[in-house]
Structure formats: structure tokens, C-alpha cells
């Protein structure tokens, strides 16, 4: 909807009304068309202002309309109509002008922005391009290189930067509408010739071809198979080479190709999934909208290794007071320096003062006595963590939430060490903790809804996307990772190389293949976990039992590498070789290839040629199958939780939506059929046995992903 009012006698004001972000739904578009007609037909009206209600100009096209039968007036002629109007039209931009919202503003003759407004063309992150003239008008307004950068990254800019770039004519700290009305009065009757952006020539840099070539190289490198960034470059190129009308045709053609693509569907699903995870629920009935978080003013972090330092920085940067505890004096001294450096670097980047005074350091655990929430981040050792939880339970004031940053240990076992297990939850951060956007909030059997709600709230306060998940070994992310890693190891045994497996996964779009990722995170991490649960043989086993654990196939390859102190990048050797310990550039290692050959010979394995499809099928479908088990077990409330965790924490390509979305795109019956096939070939690998929820979904006609929850039967919990 759009509201029309007349102010100061001669200014027609059109207010977009569609909460929460005034998206351009059919009703809003119709409203703008009708109100523009009215403003242009009233002789008393000399100029027009377009604004949005509730301090938000416009969040762009209504994404919920995509994929439906779109009705109502089309956006492009609507914007053209504004631009060609004989009366000046001023956009009064408060809050946001994003996507179609900014394109609407670019159709206006002038733009006034509030100093706190954010502007951008983020369509690329939805698998689209700015298809309402944005790719043709923006380069004409701010130059080709600047427009290319904004359109291909989807970056939001501040009002100050928008002014500098020339996107807006004025920035104000005052009431934006009042300023826009004043401005509209001042330009009434003046020539609009220079202010119809589409009629202006597109300024060319002297090296225009090189600019496009570089931009194309950059997006192809960054995009890893994503279509939209490439199409964005092509569309801007049309602005540089074609007259406006032809450029618009090219924009439309490219837009159409993207609009119906699987990638756009995946990215739009992922947009809503990231928001849906905030509406958490547990199998016991605790919910986001009925569980009230408790305010946390002071928090403590126990253990200042890499994770503890990152968590301390994340909390302090969000304005929380932090007591940072490390009992090892040497480590504490190093941590003080490390945390201060990180805070200073972060502050420089954000242009704010460093939050150094937010952190108090101590080598005594007693320093946590009066904090509201503790995050334990010591070494991944159950006995050590148990001892700390016993101490915390005795030391902390009543009601203090006790959280653990374990990446997979049993939350209930830790909670059992305390007098108030309802106050215990997991807060699983991802390294580097002050950078990575993901937080798994893990509820145990006895965690109170308030403890879950508080951890979720802290997560959003420190800028994380928090996902509430149930307690099981590895929670969601690391549990799913296990069968994926396992398949990768089995493929090596059968004849693949780390280079082949990584190539296939990186071509699929993963930021890093499984072996390069393992080298980066350290092979010793998983080795310690496998040792703790008794999977690692005490001495090199030979014979048939070397590759069997608990009756199932097991690959000791990772263990054997660790025995050679090949922990990955940190030791300069892992699945690849590096020029030095800590080196980053992975190079194929002839030693590893010889080692694999000897290993196969020792175990009577005959290497075979493994094709790309098999690598992809086995790694991905094993992972997806575990995702279905997680849903079946009620560890994740819905597929969105798994997808968000996997994209944000494990490098799954966003343009493929996440593993569960991908399964739906491939077709659940195809996933089932492939798993059945591979399980038949490898009957000793239980992770390839299709899970019953997958079978049930296929039997229910493979419903779309937003209907899966109806098929999932939720198990009982004590929450
Ligand atoms: C920054 C935000 C705007 C706000 O952030 P925040 O305050 O944190 O709040 P959120 O939690 O994110 O959001 C609050 C709720 O609002 C919902 N929301 C947000 N934006 C939109 C939107 N644009 N549409 C619908 N709903 C929206 C959000 O989901 C939340 O609700 P819920 O919790 O999920 O219930 C932030 O939200 C944000 O960044 N939003 C996205 C901004 C964006 O990306 N905008 C660009 C949208 S795409 C666009 O504008 C495209 C323009 C070109 C259109 C061209 C023509 C159209 C179609 C022609 C069809 C042609 C077919 C061709 C085929 C053929 O011919 O055959």
C-alpha cells in the first residue's frame, strides 16, 4: 500500500506502507502507480516526495512474491514513469534503500538520505541482479568501476559513502521527510534534464575492457560456480556498451535467466532459513516466543587458548564486560596481548575505540563469582571440563548460566556435575570465534528454556546466527561431518587421491575440499576425539581388524598420519605438504601418494579409477543421510537449522542452499536410490544405509522442504 498526503501546499508525499521493511509487494506497486498519477494530475502539486513508513524507505522487491504468480504493476515501467515525470520527485531515504528500493530511488530525480541509512543492491546474494534498471542507472550515476563493485558484492553502504559516491544528493541528521520536502520545494519548476539518470551517458574509464576483465576474473574466483555475480558483470557491461533501452533489454534477458534458476531458489531459501532459525523450538515444547532470556551484563570466559580469546573479543566488542580467566600464567600473559591486539585491529577496521577496558584478566577461577554467564573454553577433555563445571557450580552466584564451548562432548554429563543442571547449555563457537558467524546453542535434557533463550540472545548480541540444537555426539555440524570425512577416507583407500576428492568438492562450490580443510583445522583434533572414544588402535593393527571397528568399516588413515606427526598446516605436513610449519599453500605430496600405495598393498586393496560423480555422491549423500537422521532424532527442529549450520560453519556453497535443500533439489527419490546403491556395494558402512525418515519422505511423495516438518515425528524430551 501507499499513502498520499499533501504538505506545505504544493508537495505530494507518497508513503510506502508494508511492514516490516516496506517491500515492493503488488499492493505497494499499485499504490505507487495510483499515488503518482494523483500527484502528477493535481495542478497545485509542484513536486513529489517518496518515503517509507516507520523509518524505513524500502527493502526492495517482496522476496516472498518470487516463485508465485506475480500480479500487479511491473516495477520497471513504474520506475520509468517516475523518472519521466514533469514534476521533480525526491526520495526521502531513512533506514534502508535496498535492491528494488534503491532502484526506485534511482528513478527519482533527487535522493536525500538520513545519516544512519544504509543503501545497496544486494540482489546478487539472492541469486539475482538488480533487474529494475539498477545495472543500467547506477553506472551512469557513479561510474562503472564503483557500480561494478557495489552490484557484484551486494555490499550495503552508509549514507556518508553514498554521498561520496554520488548516489545521494544530500545527507541529513534531521527529520529526513522534512528535509526532503524543503528540498522538493526548492527544486520545483527547475529543469530535470540532468536528473533523469537513464538519459545520461555512461562515463567510460579509459581502460574499460580491462576493468570488465578484472571484474569478471574476480567474481569467477570468488563465486565458485555462482551464476549471479557473473550475470551482474555482464549486465553492467551492457550499460557501458549499449544505449539505455538496449541495455535494459540485456538486463531483462540476464535477469530472466537468473530468476528461474535453482541457484536463486537456493539463495532465497537460505535468506529465509537464516531468519527462521531464530524462531527456535525444542522437542519438549520450549519456544523462542514463550521463553524469556535473562539479561547478561557480565560474562566470564574460562581458558584463553585460541577459542577463548576469540570468544572474549566477540563479547567485549558487543559491549559486554568480560572476566577472562586463564590459570596458566604464561598463557595468560600471551592471551592479554593477543586479545588486546585483536580488539585494536577490529576497532581500527570498524572506526571505533577498542573495547580494551571491557576485559578484566585473572589467573584465578574465583574471579567468576559475580558474573551472569560463564563460557568454558578449555581443552577438549571431558575430565578437565567436568572438574571445571564442579568448581563453577560451587563458585558462581546463584542463577549464573554455565555454558561450554565443547564441539561435541556430552552436555548432560557436564550438567550432571553441577547443582543446577537447568542452567547448563552448550555454546559451540567456530574458529576464529570473533569472526565466524555461526553459533550452535546446545540444549541438554535439563537445560531450562530460559538458559537456551539467554544463550540465543547473547549469540545475536555478538552478531552470530545462532541455531538451537539438541545434545548428541558432535551436535549437528560435527555429527554430519563424520560420515562425510569417512567417505573421503574410504575413497582414498579405494584409489582416489586427496587432490581428486578436493577438486570435486571445490568444483561443487565448497570453500575448501575435505582434505585441505582437515589440514587447516588440524588432523590431531579428530585424532584426540577418536582416541578418547576408543577408535584408535593402541598399536598399528594389521590383518582384517585394522580396518574394522565395532563390526563396521573403519579407515585408520587419519590416525596413521597423526602417528607420523602430520597434523596439517601447523606441522607443515598433512594430506598435503607446505613450505614450512604454518604454511598455507597446499602442494601435492609424493610421500603421501607412496604412503597410500603401500597402505593399499598392505591391506590387499586394489586401487581403481574413481570418477567425479562417485566422489560427489558418496561424500554428499552420506552427509545428507546423517542430516535426515538428525531430523529424525529431533536434534535439529527443521532442515533450515542444518542448512544454516552447514553453510555458515562448514563452507557449503550458499548458492546450493545447504545440504538438506540440495537433497530436495536433486530429488529425494534420487538421493534414496543412490544411497541404496552405495550401501549395497558397501554393506559394512552403516552411514550409507538410507535413514527411515528419508524413506518416509519419499513414500509421502517427496514433499517440498517447507513441508518436511509435517512428516517428521518429534520424539519426547524433558524440556
Ligand atoms: C536489512 C533488512 C532489510 C532488515 O534487516 P533486519 O532489521 O535485521 O530484519 P530481518 O529479520 O532481516 O527482516 C525482517 C523481516 O522482513 C523480511 N524481509 C526483509 N526484506 C524482505 C524483502 N525484500 N521481501 C520480503 N520480506 C523481507 C524478513 O524475511 C523478516 O521476516 P521473517 O523473519 O523472515 O518473517 C534485511 O531484511 C534484508 O537484508 N532484506 C533483504 C533486502 C534485499 O535483499 N532486497 C532486495 C530484494 S530483491 C530485489 O529488490 C529485486 C529487484 C529487481 C526486481 C525486478 C523485477 C521483479 C520481477 C520480475 C519478474 C520477471 C520474471 C521473469 C521471468 C519471465 O518473464 O518468464
TrEMBL record:
Record-listed E.C. numbers: 1.1.1.35, 4.2.1.17, 5.3.3.8
Pathway: Lipid metabolism; fatty acid beta-oxidation
UniProt key word Oxidoreductase: yes
Domain (3-hydroxyacyl-CoA dehydrogenase C-terminal) ranges: 474-578, 615-702
Domain 3-hydroxyacyl-CoA dehydrogenase NAD binding: 299-471
Cellular localisation: Peroxisome
Stated family: Belongs to the enoyl-CoA hydratase/isomerase family.
Catalytic activity, as annotated: (3S)-hydroxydecanoyl-CoA + NAD(+) = 3-oxodecanoyl-CoA + NADH + H(+); (3E)-decenoyl-CoA = (2E)-decenoyl-CoA; (3S)-hydroxydecanoyl-CoA = (2E)-decenoyl-CoA + H2O; a (3E)-enoyl-CoA = a 4-saturated (2E)-enoyl-CoA
A GO BP entry: fatty acid beta-oxidation
Pfam family, one: 3HCDH
Keyword set includes Chloroplast: no
Main location: other
UniProt GO MF annotations: (3S)-3-hydroxyacyl-CoA dehydrogenase (NAD+) activity; delta(3)-delta(2)-enoyl-CoA isomerase activity; enoyl-CoA hydratase activity; NAD+ binding
Cellular component GO terms, alphabetical: peroxisome
Top-level taxon of the source organism: Eukaryota
Organism: Kryptolebias marmoratus
Record text on subunit structure and interactions: Monomer.
Keyword set, alphabetical order: Fatty acid metabolism, Isomerase, Lipid metabolism, Lyase, Multifunctional enzyme, NAD, Oxidoreductase, Peroxisome
Protein name (Swiss-Prot/TrEMBL): Peroxisomal bifunctional enzyme
